[in-house]
Design brief:
Layout (H helix, E strand, L loop, with lengths): L1 E6 L2 E9 L4 H13 L4 H6 L3 E3 L14 E5 L4 H9 L3 E5 L8 E7 L6 E5 L12
Parallel strand pairs: 4-5
Antiparallel strand pairs: 1-2, 2-6, 3-4, 6-7
Length: 129
């Protein structure tokens, strides 16, 4: 799922993800982390949580919604999900099942780029500007 990012009408970045049904959620995690000022490499490595079924096919109508949560998501956030009635499934850090991201953004200096490649996937991008 590719995403092109513009600011003031100018292209400033390209992001891509794989992850089936989780792709919009993975892009949302990335967008929020970048908006918080994280570098692309840092933003792609942050712990994630994914709401609902990640596999293809329809869930059974009476199946409870499960939120898959990587270790590293705060225990307070996980407990709030449980208290709200959600079932959670604990995942290992950097679990392959929560999708992969690749990011290239306009760097801070003219003509440079900032990149990030998800540590959950193969082929890291060169870091920095």
């Amino acid at each position: 799922m590719p995403v092109l990012v513009r600011r003031d009408g100018k292209l400033i970045g390209a992001h891509g993800t794989m992850g089936g049904r989780a792709q919009p959620q993975v892009h949302t995690h990335l967008a929020l982390n970048l908006a918080l000022g994280m570098a692309p490499a840092q933003a792609t490595a942050r712990p994630r949580w994914i709401v609902g079924q990640m596999e293809a096919g329809a869930a059974a109508p009476d199946e409870a919604v499960t939120i898959s949560v990587e270790k590293g998501v705060s225990m307070e956030a996980v407990q709030n999900l449980v208290n709200a009635g959600f079932r959670t499934k604990q995942l290992e850090p950097l679990d392959d099942s929560v999708g992969h991201l690749q990011v290239i953004r306009q760097g801070t200096a003219k003509g440079t780029f900032a990149t990030g490649s998800d540590p959950r996937s193969d082929g890291p991008a060169p870091e920095g500007n």
